[in-house]
Amino acid sequence: MQDKYLDAVIVGRRHLTDRISEFLIGAANGVALPLAEAGSHVEMRFGGAQGRFLRHYSVVGPLSPDQPSEPFWRIAVQREDRARGSAFIHDNLIVGSQVRVSRPLNAFRLSRHRPHHLLVAGGIGITPIFAMARSLLTRHENFSAFYAGMDRAAMAYADELEALCGNRLTLHESRTAGLPDLDRLLAAQPQGTQAYVCGPPAMIDALVAAAARRGWDPARIRFEVFNAAHKPEDTAFDVKLKDGATIPVGAGTTILDALEAAGLETFADCRRGECGLCTTDVIGCDGVLDHRDHFFSDADHEAGRQVTICCSRITGRVLELDI
Ligand code: FES
C-alpha cells in the first residue's frame, strides 16, 4: 500500500510579513512532487522523529500564471502566539529541515462551468484562494477576488495577487476601512455566482449569513476554515477520561493535541472542525461547551452530547469524555 506520508525537506524559506513565512517543501529524494490542484492542502508532520505536530497547510502553487507547475509545494505559515505548532515551524524549520508530508488532499475544489466565481480571503486564508485565482485565470473563467487583512503590510502575497488578478481584485484594509461589507459584496455579484471563502471563522460565518439573507442556495458558498481552534481568551482546562485519568489541555493547545501528546489513540482528519472524524461523546462538563466546528448543526451544538476535539473546547475546568 502507498505510504500516506512522503519524506520531505524544506528547500526554501522566506519572510512574507511580520507573522507569516513561506516554506518550500521538496521531496527528500529530489524528485518532483505530485501536482497539487487549486484548493488542495497537505498534512505536515514535524517536530522530531515521531512528528510531534501534525498540521494542514494549503498549497499556494506557482506565483505566476505563466508557470503551470513547480517541483516543490509552496506553503505559508502564520505564527499564532498561542499555537505551538506554528511557533515550532517559525522557530525551527530552516532549509534542510526534514518533515513528513502527505500527498495533496482537496476538500475545497473549484466548480466547473459557473457563470462567475467569487473568491474571498481573510488573512492567511489567502493561501488556497491564491491557487484558485491562478487556476481560474488559466481556465479563462470569469471571477473576482476580495482579500481582506488588517493592512497591506500584514497581507501575504498582496503584490503577487494584484499582479495576477489586476482589476478583478479588491484589497480591503480593515485598519482604515473597517469591517468589510459582505452584503454589498454579494449584491454586486452576477446571477449564479459560486463563492469560495477561506479565513477566520467569524468572516466565514458573516459571509454565509449574508448569503442566506440574500436567498442564496447554501451550496453556492464553499468555505475552508483557519484558526478555528484558538482564540486569545482561551483558558486551560482538564479532560477527564473514563479510567479516571486527567489530561491537562493548555490554553494554546487543542484537546486532540493534548490526548495525542499523552499517547492516546485518536481519530482525526481535517483538524479544523469540518470532517467530524474526531467527534467524541461528552459525559459531563462543569462549564459551557464552546463548539467551534462547522460539522454539527446548531441543534447538535445546543444538545451538547458530542464535541469535535480538534477545535472545540470549554469555558470551565473539567470536561469528561467517553474515551
Ligand atoms: S478532525 Fe475533522 S472535525 Fe475534527
Order of helices and strands: EEEEEHEEHEHEHHEHEEEHEEHEEE
CATH architecture of the largest domain: 3-Layer(aba) Sandwich
CATH class of the largest domain: Alpha Beta
Give the full name of the CATH homologous superfamily of the largest domain.
Nucleotide-binding domain of ferredoxin-NADP reductase (FNR) module
In the sheet with the most strands, the strands line up as 4-3-6-1-2-5
**Major β-sheet annotation:** 6 strands, antiparallel
Shape: globular
Mean pLDDT value: 90
Spans of at least 5 consecutive residues with low confidence = none
Radius of gyration: 20 Å
- Assign the structural class, choosing from mainly alpha, mainly beta, alpha/beta, alpha+beta, or little secondary structure: alpha/beta
Q: What is the helix tally?
A: 8
Strand composition percent: 25-35%
Number of strands: 18
List the defining traits of the structure above.
single chain; 323 residues; alpha/beta; Elongation Factor Tu (Ef-tu), domain 3; Rossmann fold; Ubiquitin-like (UB roll); 3 domains; 6-stranded antiparallel β-sheet; 5-stranded parallel β-sheet; 8 helices; 20% helix; globular; binds FE2/S2 (inorganic) cluster; 2 iron, 2 sulfur cluster binding; Ferredoxin; flavoprotein
Provide structural commentary:
The protein has 323 residues and is an alpha/beta fold. It has 3 domains: 5-102, Elongation Factor Tu (Ef-tu), domain 3 (Beta Barrel); 117-225, Nucleotide-binding domain of ferredoxin-NADP reductase (FNR) module (Rossmann fold, 3-Layer(aba) Sandwich); 237-321, Beta-grasp domain (Ubiquitin-like (UB roll)). The protein is built from 8 helices and 18 strands. The protein has helices at 84-92, 126-138, 158-165, 174-177, 182-187, 201-213, 255-261, 298-303, and strands spanning 5-15, 20-27, 41-46, 53-58, 73-78, 98-102, 117-122, 143-149, 169-173, 194-199, 221-225, 237-240, 246-249, 279-285, 288-290, 306-308, 313-315, 318-321. A 6-stranded antiparallel sheet has the order 4-3-6-1-2-5, covered by helices on one side. Strands 9-8-7-10-11 form a 5-stranded parallel sheet, sandwiched between helices. Strands 13-12-18-14-16 form a 5-stranded mixed sheet. Strand 7, helix 2 (126-138) and strand 8 (143-149) form a beta-alpha-beta unit. The longest helix has 13 residues, at 126-138. The two termini are 30 Å apart. The mean pLDDT is 90. The protein binds FE2/S2 (inorganic) cluster.
